[in-house]
Amino acid sequence: MKEKNKEIQENKMGFMPIPGLLFSMALPMMVSMLVQALYNIVDSIFVSMLSEEAFTSVSLAFPMQNLMIGVAAGTGVGMNALLSKKLGEKEFETADRAAMQGVFLSFCGYLIFALLGLTISRQFMLGQNQDPVIVEGGVTYLTIVCMLSFGLFGQVIMERMLQSTGKTFYAMITQMTGAVINMIMDPILIFGLAGAPKLGIAGAAVATVFGQFVATCLAVYFNVTRNREITLRLSALKPDPGIIRQILMVGVPSMIMVAIGSVMTFGMNRILSRFSSTAQAVFGAYFKLQSFIMMPVFGLNNGMIPIIAYNYGARKKDRILQTIKLSIIAAICIMLVGLMVLQVFPATLLGLFNASDKLLSIGVPALRIISISYVFAGFCIVSSSIFQAFGNGIFSMVVSILRQLVVLLPAAWLFSLSGNLNMVWWSYPLAELMSLLTCLFFLRRLNRTIISRL
Questions:
Q1: Contact at 8 Å (CB) between 424 and 271?
Q2: Could you give the count of Cα atoms lying within 13 Å of 77 in the half-sphere of its Cβ?
Q3: What is the pLDDT of residues 87-139, one digit of tens each?
Q4: What's the CA dihedral at 74, 77, 80, 83 to 10 degrees?
């Protein structure tokens, strides 16, 4: 009976027309990730009301926090691709084991970051800034979000299970619930409203982890009660080296890509420290705004990956190609809208973070220059997810290394030697152009070696 029910459920990704399927799966994820990005911005807005130093503290904590999110997401990407592929191949028991091995790996990830948060938070902050106020704020924030990151890891892996089987609506509900709780709790805990203690930066961290914990509980409930394609059994938590290896083959390159991004952000903060802490604050503000623009593309990818992986397992070439083309077109359109917004309203956007005149004088040209890279970014982001959907995360990793470590950071350092801060921002369009050329090369190779042979 279980296999019969699963075969009925598989038809959505195997036979539903691609435009409607991609729209139905991606739209909920795009909306929920927009809300996620919004709460990140709201979080920073409230923190910036404390002081520019507080805002800089949270910004400098971002590389470590981003690495933690990347490890959780990488585990989810690996599990997602394997689970969807096995459902397409009708290997339902293996799909169940893949889900639980994803849970096991997520718990291991939590333990690692809890230890890191306890031991290296101060050294991490001192590596980017020597201002004691900024350092103390960052240490407080990092320690809390790392030590209590079980909610983050649980939320990501449980939502990926829902996405793997096309239940993106429920994933949207969990993400939005966590985000809304975070936004409500932020002002209460930061400023001590409604009788709560005034916690400052620590309040922002506590609001974040509490929202993640609630979202985890809700996602577990949806997987148990609504996700009929997967059966979660505690007995399947016993490590399975074969399945773990398959998950990590896709997931580790994704983790490395995020790690590379964290290294790049850390390096950029060190380069910008030669100019001022305000330049670092501008960089942090850009990342918050960038997330709001790029999150819809990431949501699109989350809807796209299981469709490609499922039809790859089912060997349906035409559906794969149609999904790829439609996803690329949609991503390019989203990024062009983002380009126009940052070109026309940079001062207004920076004003959200209580920007001083100095921050505006640095930030307005920065946003306009960096956003030029959006002309190429949509294509590159989708391409990296296409590689992951086919289980070839190495291509994505190579693109990320070339973009961020081989081009962006060295170019930013060389441009900084001019003493002109505006020159540093041009490293972004240059790096994105290199990324575009590399993605085109790998897509042609993927088509020649895998897709055309289906």
A1: yes
A2: 34
A3: 777 778 888 888 899 999 999 999 999 999 999 999 999 999 889 999 999 99
A4: -70
Asked if 147 and 212 count as a contact pair (C-beta separation under 8 A), the reply is: no
- H runs (alpha helix) in 50-167: 52-88, 92-119, 121-126, 132-147, 150-164
> How far apart are alpha carbons 207 and 214 in whole angstroms?
11
Domain coordinates in residue numbering, the chain:
2-453
Count of Cβ atoms closer than 10 Å to residue 343 Cβ: 13
How far apart (Å, rounded) are the C-alpha atoms in residues 166 and 155? 17
The owner of tokens 């001062």 is 347
**In b/e form, how buried is each residue of 361-384, taking b as 16+ CB within 10 angstroms?**
ebbbebbbbbbbbbbbbbbbbbbb
- Residue 57: how many CA atoms within 13 Å on its side-chain side? 29
**CB neighbours of residue 123 within 10 Å:** 9
> Vertex 144, ends 140 and 145: CA angle to 5°?
115
Q: Identify the pLDDT of residue 314.
A: 80
Q: How many residues does the chain have?
A: 454
The confidence score (pLDDT) of residue 20 equals 86
Closest CA to 433 of 414, 448, 449, 411: 411
Q: How many angstroms separate the CA atoms of 103 and 223, rounded?
A: 12
